[in-house]
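Write out the bound-state structure for magnesium ion.
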Amino acid sequence: MDLKGKFNTVFFDADDTLWENEQFFRNAEAQFAQLLADYTSPEGVQQMLWQKQEDNIPLFGYGSKTYMIGMTDAAMDLCGGNLPEHIYYGVKKIITELAFHEFEFIEGVKETLEALQGRYKLIVATKGDLTEQMHKYRISGLADYFHHCEVMENKDEKNYLELAEKNDMDPEQILMIGNSVKSDIAPVVNIGGTAIHTPHEVVWVHEMMDMPQSDRIIEVQDIKEILKYLL
Ligand SMILES: [Mg+2]
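---
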């Protein structure tokens, strides 16, 4: 599929598309399992944590603060209703480290953005906690390449229709680049847009989904490969 000349604007997901993210959450979960090792197996901790995270995301959205609530809820259950002080503060320490982890670009991001800059209007379209995502966007220095950063409440079809409207575009004019089939690919093609999937080796269970069938989806191996379709 040739995309040249078809789009004026390119939207980029941020977590695990522009910068590393999921590995830090996996690391936090491993530390949490370690903290609760006296109560149950690592698999038992993980199972309880997934359940509590799924319960809390619809209420509090995405990001490390919601993870803090999910971990505290999971720990409370696993400790039989008596949460020891060292477990509570252990959770808080894990989450603080998660929220302020070292920033790391995905390989090839800067070169790709440099090549696209000036030829397309580039916009970050991420979901998550507003404070955390804007902090990462600012320290990344990527504001030099992007028109602006949208922190979306979620990334379903409704949210993408709102994104199009907000940017004075028809849904068919959306070109989205991202690593998550569920958040960056499926909803975009379902409303008539086009998507390029840049896979990341670590995928959050919450984001797992089979790739839909569409001639408006392109799969690449890494972010640099998108230039082949856009330049
Ligand atoms: Mg992502």
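---
The pocket of magnesium ion is lined by residues 13, 15-17, 178-180 (CB under 6 Å).
The mean pLDDT is 94.
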